[in-house]
Design a protein that fits this description.
The chain is mainly α. It has 32 helices and no strands.
Length: 645
């Protein structure tokens, strides 16, 4: 017999099926941006089926100060798909995590409503169903789910929700089984914080988020004792606050690789956070994309004027949350939880300004007041009308998310779409120009870059790309190299600019005629980057540029100079992997004596290198160094024998 009490759970099942259907087109999309820089690290460490190699990859992540090993661990079983350039399995796993988060969110909201004193079980379930469904089907969550590497943003929510379930379960037992209750709450929050933090650093906010939930709770029954709250909630929150305070730096240029200082970032984030709220409550099919380097930075309270209005709005929103906390705790919770979840990524740390995935955790309770209002409306008018309104809202979100997923099904078209909608972004214009150049339309591609350089003359990315396009077109001149060399010294560098310089160098190395004619000019251009402090702030930039200079000198048949540059690069990098790479380059070029000298230096570096920084096992390096030396000595002796005979 059909049980009406189970109807919310049945509806939740169909909502999960609906989420799969609307996301399905986007699963065909490929890898994007940070997917490449993070996941290609697997290529450095060898076969991921061997635990030693996998462990080294997991413990040496490049995405954040914690290295995010929990998140990286989840990518290891899919290593074969990465090497096959198959993004589908990664996106499927992300979608499963999204579904699981939605399911857990439903459970968490049920527990939260009970903890806040709501007695009606069916009411709790329907409200939880609506709030979780709005979050699950919202188009803003799609960019987190279908952007492979943003599994790092999904996992902190997963562990946060699991911790909240343990917390609420324990909290409900305080009156009857206090010892077990406090153990369960402590373990849940401690373990959840650790797992969330080592997935992505904002997971460390979990105790603060629980503190916000407690602060807004109007029900004093089963409230944890102050001593427990002080140790498990207050103290970790204070630690986070102290850490963030240490980041405060109002100097004119705290981040040489950013086009904003800290004051400008704080002012700009006011506009951005208001923009997030706008997109959450007035959804769009597609957001601003990932080309945020052209985002207009607030230079003052009235530059632009929306800066002041946004800050005032956020302050009023915060004050409103405090004022209505007792009468409308769910409104207060939605606002304060949203602010608390943005505390790490949208304040004083010098991250990029805008990313949609920062709302993945922040928005989980944002639709709770709407769900409660709809349920309250059903008690005033015919419930069928409210059901119709709810279905209409969910259908609206589903259609928008499906349309967005369809756009995400083709990565090239998606990036071109973003680029065309970001005229002030150097990265966006770079994508448009690359698309034109790949189609053989070099004049149009060069024109795009030239126009962009008028707006953003400081962009190293644009200047380097223009030079490479001219090399590809066959129209490059010495004056082009001189022009970029002059620009490089005064540019504000970023990682994209450094990558562009690397790419144009590798392209030139594949074209002997370019090295023959412009090799010295390219050497001078690379040397100029080392005079720019903003480039030198990029990790390992100096050693890599000197390595590139060594490669050019090798192709120019200047072995002694090439050896000197390689030796200097190895001294800076202190990495056996780099040394072996340079040894092989010299050896393959026929400069065996220089290669053997560099191999000896590489062996010395290897013996002094900390084990945790090794990308492969000791057995691999011992065997590789021994075999490389043996092969080179044999080749050297064979060469000498030919000469003497």
């Amino acid at each position: 017999m059909f049980n009406k009490r189970s109807l919310p759970e049945i509806c939740l099942f169909f909502i999960l099926v609906l989420v799969v259907l609307v996301y399905f087109p986007g699963l065909k999309g490929g890898f994007l941006f940070d997917d490449l820089s993070n996941l290609r690290e697997m290529s450095k460490y060898g076969d991921m089926h061997q635990w030693e190699n996998a462990k080294t990859f997991i413990l040496n992540g490049i995405a954040g100060p914690t290295h995010r090993p929990i998140a990286l661990l989840t990518f290891v079983p899919q290593a074969d798909d990465w090497f096959a350039n198959n993004a589908l399995p990664f996106k499927v796993v992300n979608l499963i995590i999204h579904l699981f988060c939605g399911l857990l969110l439903y459970w968490v909201i049920c527990l939260l409503l009970r903890a806040y004193g709501e007695p009606k079980q069916q009411k709790i379930k329907w409200i939880a169903l609506l709030a979780a469904s709005f979050w699950l089907l919202h188009p803003l969550m799609l960019s987190t789910t279908l952007y492979v590497i943003q599994r790092m943003a999904q996992l902190p929510l997963l562990f946060t929700l699991l911790a909240l379930i343990g917390y609420f379960k324990g909290r409900a037992l305080i009156a009857t089984r206090p010892y077990f209750a406090y153990i369960l709450m402590t373990v849940s929050i401690s373990l959840g914080t650790i797992l969330a933090t080592f997935s992505k650093e904002n997971g460390a906010l979990l105790p603060l988020l629980v503190l916000v939930i407690e602060f807004c709770n109007p029900n004093k029954n089963n409230k944890p004792i102050w001593q427990w709250r002080a140790v498990c909630l207050d103290l970790p929150s204070i630690v986070i606050a102290v850490v963030l305070l240490r980041y405060i730096d109002f100097s004119p240029d705290p981040w040489p690789n950013r086009n904003f200082n800290q004051i400008e970032r704080l002012l700009t984030e006011g506009r951005i956070v208001v923009g997030y709220l706008g997109q959450l409550f007035i959804p769009r099919i597609e957001g601003y994309g990932f080309f945020q380097d052209g985002f207009f930075v607030s230079k003052g309270w009235l530059t632009p004027p929306t800066t002041l209005f946004s800050i005032i709005f956020l302050v009023l929103l915060f004050v409103c949350a405090l004022l209505v906390r007792k009468k409308n705790p769910y409104i207060a919770l939605a606002i304060l939880f949203f602010f608390a979840a943005h505390l790490m990524e949208s304040t004083v740390i010098g991250l990029e300004l805008y990313f949609e995935h920062r709302n993945y955790v922040a928005a989980i309770f944002l639709f709770l007041p709407i769900a409660m209002s709809l349920y309250a409306l059903s008690e005033q008018i015919r419930p069928s009308v409210v059901v119709f309104i709810s279905v209409l809202l969910l259908a609206f979100l589903s259609i928008m998310t499906w349309q967005r997923a369809t756009l995400w099904s083709d990565s090239n078209k998606l990036m071109l779409y973003w680029a065309q909608n970001s005229p002030d972004s150097p990265r966006a214009q770079s994508v448009i120009a690359a698309f034109l150049a790949n189609s053989g339309k070099y004049k149009e591609a060069n024109a795009v870059i030239e126009r962009a350089l008028v707006k953003r003359p400081e962009s190293g990315l644009l200047a380097s790309q223009l030079l490479m396009q001219k090399m590809q077109e066959g129209t490059v001149t010495q004056q082009d190299f001189i022009r970029v060399k002059q620009q490089v010294i005064i540019q504000r560098a970023d990682t994209q600019a450094a990558i562009a310089i690397r790419d144009l160098t590798f392209y030139a190395l594949e074209q002997p005629q370019i090295i023959e004619k412009f090799g010295d000019d390219l050497l001078g251009l690379l040397g100029a980057t080392l005079k720019n402090p903003s480039y030198l702030n990029i990790k390992d930039f100096r050693s890599y540029i000197i390595f590139l200079q060594g490669r050019i000198l090798t192709v120019q048949h200047k072995p002694e100079l090439a050896y000197q540059y390689f030796s200097q690069s190895l001294t800076l990098s202190k990495d056996v992997e780099d040394g072996l790479n340079m040894v092989i380059l010299l050896g393959n070029a026929g400069y065996l004596q220089h290669a053997l000298k560099l191999l000896h230096q590489t062996e010395t570096v290897y013996k002094n290198q900390p084990e945790k920084t090794l990308k492969k096992s000791h057995l691999y390096y011992d065997e590789t160094i021994k075999q490389t030396r043996h092969n080179m000595l044999n080749d050297l002796h064979a060469g000498l024998s030919k000469v003497t005979s």
